[in-house]
Structure formats: C-alpha cells, structure tokens
Specification:
Radius of gyration: 23 Å
Shape: globular
Distance between the termini: 61 Å
Strand content: under 5%
Number of domains: 1
Helix content: 55-70%
Number of helices: 17
Oligomer: single chain
Number of strands: 0
Structural class: mainly alpha
Order of helices and strands: HHHHHHHHHHHHHHHHH
C-alpha cells in the first residue's frame, strides 16, 4: 500500500503543491476515497448521550431530593447523584494528570517506568499505580496515556491492576473498615498479581499472541534519567495559559475514558434501581458458590473504587468472607467493562482488552478461595 508520506509516490499526494487535473486531491472539495488528511469526526453518541442522562438525573435528584429512593426513578436518579459525587474528583484529577503527562517528554516517562519492561519495569509500574491517589476511573485515563507514551502492554496492565483501590486515602478507609492486617495483606497480594499479570502480558506480546505497543516505535535512544529530569525541570515554567492548555489536552485525551465511565455510571444506577442490594448480600458467604457469585456481582455492578470499598468491607465483616472481599475489589478491576472498552479503544485490540480478565480472574479466584479458608 502506498504511503502518502513516502518520497516515491504512485498515487496523488496530499502534500503535493498542485493537484493533477482529473486526479483526486485531499485538498480539493471533491476528494474521494481514503485520504491522509483529517476527516470530519463523527458525533460521539455514547459520550453525549450518557452525559445528558447523567446531567438530567443529577439535576432531578437535586430538585426532588437525592435520598428519595422509594420509586424506581428515585433510586435511579439518587444512584446517579451518589455515585457521581464519589467519582467526580477522580475523573477530574485523572483529566489533569493526563494533560500533565502529555507535557512530560516520552523518554522521561519511560525512563521512570523502565523502557523494556521486565520484573524491574513491572515493579515500578505497580508502585506508580499504588502511590497515585486516584479512583479507578481517574487512574484509567492516566493508564491509557501511559500506553500512548510508550509503556509496554504489561506495564500498563500492572499499573491498572495495582492502583484503583490501593490509593492512600482508600487505604486509610480500609484500615478502619477491615483492620490494618487484612488491608496490608490485600495490598501485598494485589502487588503480586499486578507484577505477574504484567509479565504474562509482555511474554504474550513477545510470542506474538498479543500485539505490541506501536507507540514504542517512536522512542529514541535512551538517556540517563538524572539528565532527562534535570533538562525537564529547566524547561518547566508555570503560567495561567499553560494550565489551561494542560486542562484542554487532558479533556481531549480522556474522552475515551469519560465515555465509558459515564455509561458505566448510568448502568450502575439502573442496577441499583431494579436490583435491591439486600438480594446480593444473602448469597455471598465464604463458600465456593459465594465466591463465584461475588465474581458475578463484581462484573455486573459498576462501582468506582470508593463504592467498592464499603461493599467489600461488608463481605468480610457481615458475610465472614475475606476471600470474597478481596475478589470483589480485584475482580471489579479485572472485569470492569469501562476499563475493558477503554483499553480496546486505546490499543485498537480486542485481544488485549479481553486478555485482562482471562489472565487476572483465575489468579484472583484462587487467592480468594485460599483467603476464605482462614
């Protein structure tokens, strides 16, 4: 196939100074067929439709009372109100960090994470996920930006798995809900799962089972991290215009995540409206069947990390099932359709997106079963 940027062209060029008579040019009004020039983007109906529903439902909850859940409509609008209030800050911070990350040189990002993956690179990516204090939807936007900055597929997966509920604020909440010992154990196990999953993904890419990250082809020669960091600090200057540019690029770069996060919010509110939460609690004991039902609930119920944390605490404290609690937290990340669809849209690969639950869920279920024995 001819490349419109190659020097030897056999087809009309979109950068030719003048179009040959009778031949289509991408700068003429009659341009037809494939062109290397940008085309008018289509309306994102999923994004704008979900946003419209969220805005209308949130406004209705404000007018009628956010806690009036005595009807299906009240439960739906109240669910939108409560869930959005829990997740908006994570989305907002995610948008900001995406814009900020877009200003950081690609080589500096990869130098901090490790350019070639491996155990060291997975460990760095996992720790970065733990220390970045964002909810699952905010961290997803940053993770997709890391992919665009050239991180390996495995590093992105390790980052996503380690981060959603391991933030500092949620760690403190879990300390109070389930105790320090169980919280630290959950965090340690999640780190191990993140590293192992990342290594598996990079191994699958090396074997050709999964496609690699095409953005890595744009990486230049490696330079020492200290030198890159020094040069970056010297180039940074704060300004009002620069901050607005970061926010603008953050919103643009987060569209794929915002689309699915808002759609997931609507779906979660629908589940709240039509499926009583008490109906789930009676089935989630520390049994093999209860573990599978927990996995099913984590897959179906779309909640952000703040919403998942108290539910997980109830599974441990009221159902006496620590394995179910861990499974709910981790499987909610591995099977989250917002995450899966965002990964698919960013990587342009269904295989990468669907391999996330395929690789992660068996690990989570095995560890959940072992934890329930204690």
């Amino acid at each position: 196939m001819a490349d419109c940027h190659s020097e030897a062209r056999t087809t009309p060029s979109c950068h030719a100074p003048a179009a040959t008579e009778g031949a289509p040019s991408c700068h003429t009004q009659q341009a037809v067929g494939d062109s290397c020039c940008p085309t008018k983007s289509r309306v994102d109906y999923l994004l704008w439709g979900s946003l419209s529903v969220v805005v209308l439902a949130y406004a209705w909850a404000l007018v009628t009372g956010a806690h009036q859940h005595d009807s299906v409509l009240g439960a739906f609008t109240g669910g939108i109100y409560e869930l959005f209030n829990r997740m908006w800050w994570g989305l907002a911070l995610g948008v900001f960090f995406v814009g900020l990350l877009g200003k950081i040189p690609r080589d500096l990002v990869l130098a901090m994470l490790g350019r070639n993956g491996g155990l060291n690179g997975m460990f760095r990516a996992t720790l970065a996920g733990v220390f970045l204090d964002l909810c699952s939807h905010g961290i997803l936007a940053v993770g997709m930006k890391l992919y665009e900055r050239g991180a390996t597929v495995g590093q992105v997966m390790a980052f996503l798995l380690a981060s959603p509920w391991n933030s500092f604020s949620l760690t403190l909440i879990l300390f109070g809900l389930i105790g320090v010992g169980w919280t630290l154990l959950f965090i340690l196990i999640s780190l191990v799962i993140g590293v192992l999953t990342g290594l598996v993904f990079d191994a699958l890419v090396a074997r050709g089972t999964l496609p690699g990250n095409p953005f890595r082809e744009e990486l230049g020669a490696a330079a020492p991290l200290a030198d890159q960091w020094r040069d970056f600090r010297r180039s940074v200057s704060l300004s009002f215009g620069g901050t607005l540019e970061v926010l603008r690029e953050g919103v643009s770069g987060s569209r794929v995540v915002l689309r699915w996060a808002l759609f997931g919010l609507v779906l979660a509110a629908l589940i709240r409206a039509f499926v009583p939460a008490d109906a789930f609690a009676a089935w989630f004991g520390a049994s093999f069947a209860g573990l599978w039902l927990t996995l099913l609930a984590a897959t179906v119920i779309e909640v952000c990390s703040e919403g998942a944390t108290p539910i997980a605490a109830d599974l441990m404290n009221r159902a006496g099932a620590p394995g179910n609690a861990f499974t709910f937290l981790m499987a909610g990340v591995a099977t989250d359709y917002t995450e899966i669809m965002s990964i698919r849209d960013t990587t342009r690969s269904w295989k990468i997106a669907l391999f996330l639950p395929l690789v992660t869920v068996p690990q989570v279920m095995l560890i959940g079963y072992i934890l329930n024995q204690f």
